Amino acid sequence: MKHWRKTWYSLVGPLMIWVAFIIAAPFLTAGAIISADILPPFGVVVIRTVSLFCVLVLAPLGALAEIAPPFVTREEVQWRNRNSDTLFEIDVAWEDVPFLPPILNRIRSTPTKHMRQERTEGAAIVEAKSTTY
Q: Which domain of life, per UniProt (predicted)?
């Protein structure tokens, strides 16, 4: 019954918030600008093209390939590293690597044995302290 918590928790990370924003914001902005009727027809076409690009290209890159602007990936990496015990069953560390510098970065995971050793050493120290008292 605990698996749904992991799924839900991973959906509220900074990357998924950015994906939701990149889907909603272009439609709302384009709709507001177009309904104001202040642009010539060519401007309307440009606004619609840019908003469709954001929705059809940037949102799938973020959701499926974990590719986003550097400020989003930086926050996502910090969030995942901080919550790795809740999100993942194995020891893993996350980092963002350039994908299309300086516009887009992607998130990459690497297995870590260092954290596992720290946990076992920490547990041994705590156990040793508890047996001495």
A: Bacteria
End-to-end Cα distance, the chain: 38
Strands 67-68 and 104-111, sheet pairing: antiparallel
What's the rounded Cα separation, in Å, for the pair 84 and 94?
Answer: 9
Instruction: State how far the Cα of 129 lies from the Cα of 133, in Å rounded to an integer.
Output: 7
> Distance (Å, rounded) from C-alpha 43 to C-alpha 31?
13
Cα–Cα distance measured from residue 93 to residue 78, given in angstroms and rounded to the nearest whole number:
10
pLDDT of the chain along its 133 residues, tens only?
Answer: 455 566 666 678 899 999 999 999 998 999 999 899 999 999 999 999 999 998 999 899 999 999 999 999 999 999 888 888 777 778 888 899 999 989 999 999 888 865 544 555 555 554 555 555 5
Show me where the domains of the chain are located.
3-132
Beta strands, E only, 1-133 = 67-68, 92-100, 104-111
pTM across the whole model: 0.71
Instruction: Give the chain's radius of gyration (CA, Å).
Output: 21
